[in-house]
Amino acid sequence: MNVTTPPSEGIGASVRRREDLRFLSGRGQYTDDLNRPGQLHAWILRSPHAHARIGGIDTAAAAAMPGVRAIYTAAHIEAAGLGGVPCGWQVTGKGGKVMAEPMHPVLASGKVRHVGDPVAVVVAETRSQARDAAEAIAVSYTPLPALPTMAAALAPGAALLHDDAPGNVCFDWEIGDAAATDAAFAAAYKVVRFETTNNRLVPNAMEPRAAIGDYDPNSGEHTLYTTSQNPHVIRLLMGAFVLKVPEHRLRVVAPDVGGGFGSKIYHYAEEAIVTWAAAQLKRPVKWTCERSEAFVSDAHGRDHVTRAELALDAEGRFLGLRVETLANMGAYLSTFAPAVPTYLSATLLAGCYTTPAIHGQVKAVFTSTVPVDAYRGAGRPETTYLLERLVDVAAREMGMDRVEIRRKNFIRPDQFPYQTPVALQYDSGDYEATLREALRVARYDSFEQRRAEAKARGRLRGIGISTYLEACGIAPSKLVGQLGARAGLYEVANIRVHPTGSVSVFTGTHSHGQGHETTFAQLVSEQLGVPLSQVEVVHGDTGKIPFGMGTYGSRSLAVGGSAMVKAMDKIIAKGRKIAAHLLEASVEDIEFSNGQFRVAGTDRAKAFAEISMAAYVPHNYPIEEIEPGLEETAFYDPKNFTYPGGCHICEVEIDPETGETEVVNFTACDDVGRVINPMIVEGQIQGGLAQGIGQALIENTVYDSEGQLLSASFADYAMPRAAQIPAFDVSTSTTLCTHNPLGVKGCGEVGAIGSPPAVINAVVDALRDYGVTHVEMPATPQKIWSIIHSKGGAALPAAAE
Amino acid sequence: MYDFAYHKPTSVADAVKLLAEDPDARPISGGMTLLPALKHRLNMPSALIDLSGIAELRGIRREGDALVIGAMVKHFEIATDPQIMAAIPALSRMAATIGDTQVRNRGTIGGSLANNDPAADYPAAALALGATLITDRRQIPADAFFVGMFTTAMEPGELLVGVSFPIPEKAGYAKLRNPASRYSMTGVFVARGPKGVGVGVNGAAACAFRQKEMEAALAANWSPEAVAGIRQPADDLNSDIHGSAEYRANLVTVMAKRAVADAG
């Protein structure tokens, strides 16, 4: 790697985010900021029922209201021959049984299956007129039994949500070696059992979803502006499966996007509705989600119910692990939903430990709730939480120190590459290094003094550790194809060097808060020796960028950045040929560094901009051998997942009178591979930690027995606030990824993955004198007070020692 | 929101006249509750009577041993006004905990009192301090004003113009916020003054109420310990996904202790 550009700009520099000036000064251009000439507005009438049969839809009165241009129901969608909303991943379960994949209609057909299921669309001159008319639509519903929980959906004789999903089961899947695991348990000194529910979360990106459909009757081209993390994926799914429009007639633009966390990966019905309606009406159609609408229409996250058993020998070594998970899919299969509890979750059951035998089973269940899909971490937070709580429970039952039991079971640095019993092969890591550093920064050794001091103030102080591992950089296309993905998961970069040496980078990844415009520019600046100011990063428009798969799973740098390196390697290779011609030297003798093509061992050199100018003004140029121009495209298909890991240590204080938990210290030492921009990495980790603390302490999605969402607004759904977030101690400790050119692993999700068990381990530790062994997430004030109250109240019991 | 007519009178008399002429009209002060309800189409008034142009609804003045605060005085002003901070500092501290900066610069004390949200802060203070609510036509003691959830003793068309707080010797406030909405899950305002000891509770029940057992205990012994052993019956308290009635009952005791400590 060249270390040539000034350290203030290249790899390793904390360059300020170039995109922030427009974001912070209100000049971002989000989908809702866009308005097309002649634009109409759509309002979506949604189901008030969790599960009901639609008898009839009377739109006559609504159609006669002012400004109404069209009203669409399932009948129109079906008459037009549109397809259903597709699922991008097919899981094959036990015995080769393919998952149940019921039709997900664009508009509810015959039945509604969750509160918020779209039933009809009104298109009118104004948004208010569309909403007025939607209120005048009369839908006759015959309510059917609600299935708001997996227990209700799996109960014998439960109503069927979909006729073609018997028992409301989507799939029943397994991984690992059941017989070997049974044998491990048979030889165990001790078996530790643990059950938990990973609480369901509403993503709540700051920017609600929005979509504008546009249609040019002259060219026949459809354009969709949408709040998406992956415009090419939307174009493929919507064009090929729903609207049946070929790619060259469909452009998808995802402009500035205000947060996604996974919820903007998926192709949503509203995108197809506005795109199709615009073509019907020959006018642009805009839809912007209300916040309260987002609660019942954005895919939710998590919602796993898991039972686990860990077999240990007398020294505390892990011998075997058995895990059974029920995974809530919601009412329909969202784009990646089947992959989340299986290939993104159960494949991580080894964690950072040498457990030799593992068997995991996942039963995916349809319920009358909003579809559930990937949310920041996507499956890995669920497994990490399970493992890191289970390890603490095991330490307690074995009478072992929580640090010691982890150390005893860590995969050691000399064991890489390490093949787990659940398919993955880890390439690198040093879990002892991140643990040691986090313990030092967190002043773990002096914790008991702080606990005693807190006790003197009437507060319960606890400390919790999480040593996690996760998988990012999704993923080798061949592998994921074997696992059921219906797409490749490579990434693409097009590097266009302009005549004067400035550079445009076209990437298939998408930035919706990650700071790609800065990080990628730093990477290109470093590799090509071009000043940062001469590099622009272009993303988000299928009319401009080559076919790439977008941003999720912390993949942008590991996969997208690797594609850029490949494309830049081609640029440099071509530049060396041009330089060899101009310098009258052989190509083999041309070195490239510091933005200079140089004849090795001499001071004869051509600057990068001289080479680019020669490429576009090829007067003195080896035109017989190489083409003019300096522009290269590369696709990069990853060789493996990347495996970030690290240690999070949380310290809390609980007010025993109210049950309130305050996070007083939080230390994170993460191995995310090579760091391009330390400030952006720290920001990503801090954001993830805030979400992890939110999940652990306050965030919760609650449905009642009728399938009504009780936590349906910010009045009842608690989000973490700045005052609840401590001043984090965040650091990185690096081992390089061995199989991508930059050695990067990914940092977008580690915060949300590693932190929830650290928080709950701390809460349980704070309550240790009460004999508490587990607190389910979220550990709300009421829940903690109830536990303390049931154990005799706030008067502190004598310490166990 | 649905369409409505908009009026901006400049006197209380004009506002009351507009309200009398149209029973479906609603007065709006800061709009911190009404505007979201309108945006969610939960409310369909024929007209909004904007009170922000009425000068006589503003102002903070000392009247003998009482502080009279105009209905349109904003939370931010109550939190920062030197007269209030000197006379009833606990009221200023309470106002500083309402909502966020934007809410405190829009929301008004009159709007909050007249709305009588069970989780609003001020009703507990009005009860504990023995305040008098002043309307366009009469004066109503706080004890008679807060009737039930979102309900007051005011008649249709009656307009709250101000509130008179007797200045206490001591007062204090403590609350636990709802983790989601940040409204009061349970708050307790305690005061000792010319009208004796008052303990007002918000957030816990359908309507703010006085905890008279605690008042008697504090009258005998003004200290946190005096209320520490008093258990609020949970029978009529609110229960929701954030807090059971039993939890709120516990909070009444805990917040009362802390309010007394806050009062000093």
Automatic annotation (TrEMBL), chain A:
Keywords attached to this entry: Molybdenum, Oxidoreductase
Keyword Amino-acid biosynthesis: no
Any Pfam family hit: MoCoBD_2
KW Magnesium (keyword) present: no
Domain Aldehyde oxidase/xanthine dehydrogenase a/b hammerhead: from-to ranges: 25-145
One Gene Ontology molecular-function label: oxidoreductase activity
Source species, domain of life: Bacteria
Signal sequence residues: none
PANTHER family on file: ALDEHYDE OXIDASE 1-RELATED, XANTHINE DEHYDROGENASE
Record's protein name: Carbon monoxide dehydrogenase
Automatic annotation (TrEMBL), chain B:
Keyword Cytoplasm attached: no
SMART domains: CO_deh_flav_C
Positions of the FAD-binding PCMH-type domain: 1-170
Keyword entries, A-Z: FAD, Flavoprotein, Oxidoreductase
One Pfam short name: FAD_binding_5
Annotated PROSITE patterns: FAD_PCMH
A molecular function (GO) term: FAD binding
Top-level taxon: Bacteria
Entry keyword RNA-binding: no
Name this polypeptide is given: Carbon monoxide dehydrogenase
Biological classification of the source: Bacteria, Pseudomonadati, Pseudomonadota, Alphaproteobacteria, Acetobacterales
